Amino acid sequence: MKITFIRPNLADMRSADAMEPLVFAILAGLTPPDVETALYDERLEAIPYDELTDLAALTVETYNARRAYQIATQFRRRGVPVVLGGYHPTFLPDEALQFADAVVIGDAEGLWPQVVEDARRKRLRRIYRQPDYPALGGKRPDRRIFRGKRYAPAALVQYGRGCRFACEFCSIHAFYGFNLRQRPVPEVVAEIEASQRRHIFLVDDNIFVDVPKAKALFRALIPLKIRWSCQVSIDVAQDEELLQLMEQSGCTTAVIGFESLDEHNLAQMKKRWNLKYGDYAASVQRFRDHGIMIYGSFVFGYDHDTVDSFKRSVEFAIRSNFYLANFNPLTPMPGAKLYERLHAEGRLIHDRWWLAPDYTYGQATFHPRGMTAEQLTEGCFRARQQFNEYKSIFKRALDFKTNCRDPYRLGLHLASNIVSRNEILRKQGMQLGQGIPLIQVSSV
């Protein structure tokens, strides 16, 4: 038996910023050794639809759902059964089942052995539902599935799942609730050592959901002498011991969701705690004092945003010498409270914008109050362009506290910014799935 794992892109295209899709290494590690596995990542390579296989397994995000359904259709036309999993099919299983033979709802680890066995017997169920939140320990990803693929050089490692916050725009809380889980620290250390990589991206949605456990992890990382990145909430800047441990254990970059400079917007998105300990500048400086490069994330389109909000945010990001920054139109994702609210208010441009043939990447998906949808689309794109101008890239590169602290950081800053600049220009305005019509195929 052979299983083909597929990671769809936004369309049939290649990307220069692809990172390892960790989920497939996890599933490969749970697949019986007598089952052959192969991975095709559309961000790196074309998908060989005519290659013989017994099951196609795709992970689906909302942005690549349209493309995932097109890929699934191609396999099913050839008589290959398809199973879909991930956030999007979990929130919209009925939609996903129109293009698949089976859908996995929730975390896949506890269900995958049964999916494989049912596929072997050609008796796939329509729905596989994970009823709870299984422990994360005891599952070692099989990274051999990434061999020969040109991913970004950082290895992705997961310590825990879940987030202690419930921001209105985020699907994480809808998926996990307030369930917070971590793997045993020795397992994480062993996986990092086995990866033989010198830069690790800890992919937890918020690695500081349990601060004492995070500190224990960082202490265990110190002897490894690695460099690592993570996603954090800005409130951790108040814990000096934590910042010291991050620095000592090799943290070079942190992704932080600033979201907005307007406290009324933060209140509306249920993220007022961002300013609990004062303004952003003081918190940013604490990260900088420990040599941690900041990747800032902003969203626009909340009710107190105007066309002037873009300029203020870009200026703040450049003045703060952020290593990278995202300036995104607020996007209502399935499962998130934001989607429910905007749908109830009749403000969505398309109820299912991710399937709309005329929707393009970076486009506003709803009618904001402080500007038009067109102004929201254009404002975000211009903000991205301005932050990624060459003069901005090189101005920020000369920050000797962070981005130019050592040759490694400087090289990381320059390479990441050039790739980011090129990808932003290439993706803006792209039709998801290239606008190719969706076709349903009967179950195989």
Topology summary:
Blueprint: E1 2-7, H1 22-30, E2 36-41, E3 55-59, H2 65-77, E4 82-85, H3 87-91, H4 93-97, E5 102-105, H5 112-120, E6 127-129, E7 155-157, E8 160-161, H6 172-176, E9 181-182, H7 185-195, E10 199-202, H8 211-221, E11 227-232, H9 240-249, E12 251-259, H10 263-268, H11 280-289, E13 293-300, H12 309-319, E14 324-329, H13 337-344, H14 373-387, H15 390-397, H16 407-427
Parallel strand pairs: 1-2, 1-3, 3-4, 4-5, 5-6, 7-10, 10-11, 11-12, 12-13, 13-14
Antiparallel strand pairs: 8-9
Helix pairs in contact: 7-8, 8-9, 12-14
Plain-language structure description:
This protein has 444 residues and is of the alpha/beta class. 35% of the residues lie in helices and 15% in strands. The protein has two domains: 2-134, Rossmann fold; 153-427, pyruvate-formate lyase- activating enzyme, CATH 3.80.30.20. The chain has helices spanning 22-30, 65-77, 87-91, 93-97, 112-120, 172-176, 185-195, 211-221, 240-249, 263-268, 280-289, 309-319, 337-344, 373-387, 390-397, 407-427, and strands at residues 2-7, 36-41, 55-59, 82-85, 102-105, 127-129, 155-157, 160-161, 181-182, 199-202, 227-232, 251-259, 293-300, 324-329. Helix 2 (65-77) links the parallel strand 3 and strand 4 (82-85). Helix 12 runs parallel beside helix 14. The longest helix is centred in the last third of the chain and has 21 residues, at 407-427. It starts with a strand and ends in a 17-residue tail after the last helix. The model has no long low-confidence stretch (mean pLDDT 95).
